[in-house]
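Supplementary Note 3. Input sequence used for the single-chain structure prediction.
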Amino acid sequence: MRWQLPIVWVMGSVVTGTVGILFTNGRGDLPVVPLTMLGAGQMLALVMLVGAFGLALVALGWRTADATWLPRNDLRSIIVWTVAVGGVGAVGWGFAAIVTFALGFSLTTQLVLCYTCGGLPFALVAGMFVRPVLVNAVSTMITSIAVLVGCVLIDSPLQTVVLYLRFLVGEPFTTM
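The predicted structure, written as discrete structure tokens, is reproduced below.
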């Protein structure tokens, strides 16, 4: 079951990189294209991509259930693992994206980071469920350090996160 974390990382990186392209294609001067401005094809691609990622996580969770400390061969455990890895990982990736936007990274740099490191938040969450306690501790420590570094690097972290989230759902983008 040693392949669970690298597989989660690779799947997460492919998905987040592709999502990054969907949200930055045709953005003009905006940081990303708001959800309300995505075309029908882009929205369909987004839904299908997230759905496929969810199904892939379920399959991986089922196949590698022995690697976690959750009860084995229990559908509820697989669902908890999938929702935690997918949901919390997406929140972590979103925070990292906001930090890179707030720091003014170029689009090329952000997309390279998406395709190479975009799966890291998902792998860190999966690492919090892996059976050796040492891996749980290391995953939690790396996650804590990453969040703290992100908060230190940007001015007014909470307000910046709220600003980008409001923009993502369609409110006009105004800088602080």
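The chain has seven helices and no strands. Residues 75-102 form the longest helix (28 residues).
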